[in-house]
Design goal:
heterodimer, A: alpha+beta, Glutamine Phosphoribosylpyrophosphate, subunit 1, domain 1, five-stranded antiparallel beta sheet, 12 strands, flat, B: alpha+beta, 6 helices, 10 strands, globular, threonine protease (chain A), hydrolase (chain A), cytoplasm (chain A), zymogen (chain A)
Chain lengths: ~270, ~250
């Protein structure tokens, strides 16, 4: 089986490392334009077709001890829940994590591709790539595929020489550095809990509990999120999975069933 | 042997790439260049052939800056140098763009050497006729580095080295007199090495000093003259000291 490695070649313009010897400046990449009467409209339609609501909840935040990353595990196709056990936190390498929101295939492939690039960088330069560099590589690739229907809303979290790093990268080509992010259809609910309970000086357990609670609340209200709330911690020694709790069980943990007085009891009616 | 130096993609029967060796000859005819690494500076020195009266000497700068923290001096075909320097400068910026970090000296040396190698393995082109001395500080670790590349595309790190005209004499001098130095001592060592093969005087030498804090600084003619005077004075003092005991016996 011949592997298609065309995705592995960087399509971003890279000056200097051109294959043409005579001309020092590499030509900007060009892709074939479809033959159509309505060029602009065609692009818009294509994007609308593949612009899913990114049915998921993922979040990540930096705190004193490092980075906390959490996500749900539900995959939905419209109203159909196709899986409750999707791994949405992708291990790029032992000290960097990526989260998945949007198209699962796109996220998985490009995160693995990023892992390859990070490893090659390490081998060539004899030191690990920074979180800044890794997120930039991914953002440049996604930018070069802009408008072609990729759907990726990811956070790159890791620990490098400068300490904890967190970047949000999406398929529009955007890249943001920040301390707190949540991505997906359940993110408004997660943000509510996260922003309310966040303090920089938290212990690892407190931060994990905050992340878990935020994911739980998002799965409670958002239909496209659910399954298992996974929580990962990234510290100076790399990432470590802290917990994976079913959100149904979390619900009863946070809101245990209290025996309550019955207002009306059903009484046996004498047979007529 | 004449049949094997046309298209450089062809090996000779005894394993030579003649075009590459001829390129090394071109380097040996180029002006002398020396580089010395100290503990907190790296010094590059180049021989400047006497400037014609009508020439504006300021337009002939032989030590080029690749980025704030990396500089390059070379021996050989100056036109080839211009092309290589431009490509290296672009690569320095491209690296900053893609990984948001300045290049390490080793990275840009590897890039330049890779470029030189590419031109030894392609049809219709000739190798670059120059060897480069690349000096700089690593942006993260702050360690000073000095590298040498040659037309075949190999590169090594050096404590001190020379290339170009009479580089063997300079290298012998450096091997005999090198020791770990810093600051002004390193500059003096570089100038002394150059003076082995170049006529004395600030007019015939171009010196640039790379430090972590201030980047690249070209020394003025007057400064170089002062240091040369210093070196001459030390030399006469040493000779006098040698002669004096002999007189007594």
């Amino acid at each position: 089986m011949k592997l298609d490695t065309s995705g592995l070649e960087s399509t971003a313009p890279s000056f200097g490392s051109s294959n043409e010897l005579i001309d020092g400046f590499a030509a900007a990449p060009s892709f074939e334009v479809p033959v159509t009467t309505d060029f602009d409209g065609f692009q818009k339609e294509a994007i609308q077709m593949v612009k899913p609501a990114k049915g998921t909840t993922t979040l990540a935040f930096i705190f004193k001890e490092g980075v906390m990353v959490a996500a749900d595990s539900r995959a939905s196709m419209g109203g159909y829940i196709s899986s409750q056990s999707v791994k949405k936190i992708i291990e790029i390498n032992p000290y960097m994590l990526g989260t998945m929101a949007g198209g699962a295939a796109d996220c998985q492939f490009w995160h693995r591709n990023l892992g390859i690039k990070c490893r090659l960088h390490e081998l060539a330069n004899k030191r690990r790539i920074s979180v800044t560099g890794a997120s930039k590589l991914l953002a440049n690739i996604l930018y070069s595929y802009r408008g072609m229907g990729l759907s990726v809303g990811t956070m790159i979290a890791g620990w490098d020489e400068t300490g904890p790093g967190l970047y949000y990268v999406d398929s529009e080509g955007g890249r943001l550095k920040g301390a707190r992010f949540s991505v997906g259809s359940g993110s408004p609910y997660a943000y509510g809990v996260l922003d309310n309970g966040y303090r920089y000086d938290m212990s690892i357990e407190e931060a994990a509990e905050l992340a878990r609670r935020a994911i739980y609340h998002a799965t409670f209200r958002d239909g496209a999120s659910g399954g298992v709330a996974s929580v990962y911690y990234v510290g100076p020694d790399g990432w470590k999975k802290l917990s994976g709790d079913d959100v149904g069980e979390l619900h009863y943990k946070y809101y245990p069933v209290m025996p309550s007085t019955v207002e009306q009891e059903m009484v046996e009616v004498a047979g007529a | 042997m004449a049949r094997y130096d046309r298209a450089i993609t062809v090996f000779s029967p005894d394993g030579h790439l003649f075009q590459v060796e001829y390129a090394l000859e071109a380097v040996r005819k180029g002006n002398a260049a020396v580089g010395v690494r100290g503990s907190d500076v790296v010094v590059l020195g180049v021989e400047r052939k006497s400037t014609p009266k009508l020439q504006d000497s300021r337009s002939v700068r032989k030590i080029a800056l690749l980025d704030d923290h990396v500089a390059l001096a070379c021996a050989g075909l100056k036109a080839d140098a211009r092309v290589l320097i431009n490509r290296a400068r672009i690569e320095c910026q491209s690296h900053r763009l893609t990984v948001e970090d300045p290049v390490t000296v080793e990275y840009i040396t590897r890039y330049i050497a890779g470029l030189q190698q590419k031109y030894t393995q392609s049809g219709g082109v000739r190798p670059f006729g120059l060897s480069t001395l690349i000096a700089g500080f690593d942006p993260c670790t702050g360690v000073p580095s000095l590298y040498l590349t040659d037309p075949s595309g190999t590169f090594q790190a050096w404590k001190a080295n020379a290339t170009g005209r009479n580089s063997n004499s300079m290298r012998e001098f450096l091997e005999k007199n090198y020791k770990e130095t810093s600051g002004q001592e390193t500059v003096k060592l570089a100038i002394r090495a150059l003076l082995e093969v170049v006529e004395s005087g600030g007019k015939n030498i171009e010196i640039a000093v790379m430090t972590k804090e201030h980047g690249l600084r070209q020394l003025e003619e007057a400064e170089i003259d002062a240091i040369v005077a210093d070196i001459d004075a030390e030399k006469t003092a040493a000779e006098a000291a040698k002669k004096a005991p002999a007189k007594e016996t």
